[in-house]
Amino acid sequence: MYSGATLRRVSTWSSPAATAVENRLFRALAVLRVIVLVNAIGLNIYRAGNFDHPVAGAACVVVMVLWTGFAIWAYAEPRRRTVVLLTADLAVALALLLATPLVKGDGFRATVPGFWIIGALLAWSIHYRVLGGLAAGTLFAVVDLTLREHIRQSDYNNAFLLVISGSIVGFICGSLQRMATERDAAERAAAMAAERARLARVVHDGVLQVLALMQRRGGELGGEMAELGRLAGEQERELRRLIRAEDVADVAEENVDLVSELGRLERSGTITVSAPAFPVELPAAVAHEIVAAARACLDNVRYHVGDDARAWVLLEAYPDRVELSVRDDGPGIPAGRLEEAVAQGRLGVSESIRGRVAALGGTAALVTGAFGTEWEIVVPRPAHDLGAAS
Amino acid sequence: MSDGAGPVRVMVVDDHPMWRDAVERDLARAGYDVVAVAATGREALVRFAATRPQVVVLDLQIPAPDGVQVTSEIVRLEPSTRVLVLSASGEHGDVLAAVTAGATGYLVKSASREELLAAVRRVADGDAVFTPGLAGLVLGEFQRRSEEPAEEPPGSTLTERETEVLRMVAKGMSYRQIAERLVLSHRTVQNHVQNTLRKLQMHNRVELTRYAIEHGLDED
Predict the structure, then answer these.
(1) Residues B64 and B99 grouped into a single domain
(2) Could you tell me the CATH superfamily of domain A255-390?
(3) What chain A residue is nearest to B163 in terms of C-alpha separation?
(4) What percentage of chain A exceeds 90 in pLDDT?
(5) Mind telling me how many Å the CA of B117 is from chain A's nearest CA?
(6) Does pLDDT of A226 surpass 60?
(7) B137: chain A residues, CB-CB within 8 Å
(8) Does one domain contain both B146 and B78?
């Protein structure tokens, strides 16, 4: 599923999904603008006798018609929905409100624009959401009430409705946009996961099988084919690790799975890596140091025992620590050899391994005998990783 | 395991024709009687019932039902059947599930022909084929279970000696090397390994029983 981080990166207000919601709402508002315009024209004709200045009143109606047409065109395109447009929209509506006492006289009952102003109000609600709707609604309400000589109950009710409808529509617009953005992100995440699973299946059923077969047949045929087989085996492991890693890539970026990191050390025929079936999550820096220590041990094996030397890596994970063992089948190191080397100032590989592990707060011990040579590395786990083991 | 007469009967299950043919050919040349091959879980179960092979060489990633389900169904039908799981590297969870379901051996697909034949021979003899990789998975599984709050059914946890032996297997030591180092007989080491597998599978049966009691019998 998608993570919170993904959602935060895609802004709720500028995401394509949010813009699509806004486009839809502005299309609906265009229809509403025409309806309230027709209503306003009808009412003004019906009350034509109330005008002190009929010509000025007719001019106001013409302004409403022209502005409605312009607004419908202007709001149709997302990039034209600027502060300038929204402010102008509000200003025209306010101007018509303010013109009412001038054209109808001080004792007017109905304003010239009437409900036509909700076009501008809802534009603010849609574009600036709850705060925009609240601001525009309050402004209209205050202006409307201050213009009147007598405030009747119905005037107050209308003003109150302007304020709360502006806010509520704004709130709903914001919620719709957020939901659309989240749904988009979820759909995208699901599509990506499905595609990844499909690719993994295809790769598994085809490429990986062929690579594994090449590896096997190459080993049987020997010679140059064996080398090709070995390369095929390496690619097979890399590819498989990649598919596995993809699955958990977005789970924890700062933690890595030590099991899959150690898996890269595996070499068909020589190096075997054994580990639990569950991921062992460790901070990336710690995991990489452990892998580096294991690699140093393996290099040491190759150097002392030979290129074809077999080696085994074993990882065991406990709640409080991880234990790593690197063992080879070689003749072992004669007693005193290491101490002798240290005494002569040749610290060498063994000290670099001990140093790396000590820096992680762990211990590295070397056991050697007829059974071969074994490094036993113990590194404590940070306490908050306890849950990752299960 | 044998009837006393005739070659060991084997079934090969793999959805990849190249693989199936290669494994079938190798087994036939080594004297095994490949009585059936199958490309899907469904085919595998039908042909298993018809031919009753003694050993099943099974790829885990096959069309439904998958290798794990096929393993548990085969073992349920005929507990004496030996299942050797072949899997490409990296499918650790599935390998563990198959072994818990009753498979007695595991081999990576990139293993050589000699390794495959040796594994089939040992599985047919009734031995567990524990690669170091499988031992690592099983060790991890017992470790994980020991952290679970639920109490372990008696006799399903590893003894210290068994853990020690398993750890040595995971470190690539042969049974002979382990026997020498722990001053045990080869057979004793083998028994310890066999026991870990038995306990792994027993835990599974206990879980199944508990599940059945909780979800089925309680409602009646």
Answers:
(1) yes
(2) Histidine kinase-like ATPase, C-terminal domain (3.30.565.10)
(3) A316
(4) 39
(5) 13
(6) yes
(7) 274-277
(8) no
Residue A351 — φ and ψ, nearest 5°?
-70, -35
Its ipTM equals 0.83
The pTM assigned to this predicted structure is 0.61
Nearest-neighbour CA in chain A from B159: distance (Å): 17
HSE at residue A360, side-chain half, CA atoms within 13 A, is: 29
Tell me the pLDDT band of A70, cut-offs 50, 70 and 90: very high
| Residues 186-245 of chain A whose Cβ lies under 8 A from any Cβ of chain B | 204-205, 208-210, 212-213, 215-217, 219-220, 233, 236-237, 240-241, 244
Both B186 and B87 in one domain: the answer is no
Task: Count other C-beta atoms under 10 Å from residue A152's C-beta.
Answer: 10
Is the pLDDT higher at A342 or at A193? A193
The answer to whether residues B109 and B21 belong to one domain is yes
Domain that residue B152 falls in: 134-219
Model pLDDT, residue A245: 61
Burial class of residue B175 (count of CB atoms within 10 Å of its CB; 0-12, 13-18, 19+)? buried
Q: Are residues B97 and B176 in the same domain?
A: no
Cβ neighbour number for residue B195 with a 10 Å cutoff: 19
Question: Is the Cα torsion angle A208, A211, A217, A222 positive or negative in sign?
Answer: negative
Least Cα distance to A39 among A127, A136, A144, A111 occurs for A111
Q: Where are the alpha helices (H) located in B53-185, listed in sequence order? A: 67-77, 92-101, 113-124, 132-147, 160-170, 175-182
Per residue in A104-115, pLDDT (tens digit) is: 888 888 888 999
Last residue of a domain, one of B110, B129, B148: B129
The identity of residue B125, as a single letter, is D
Is residue B147 in a domain? yes
Q: Would you state the pLDDT for residue B153?
A: 66
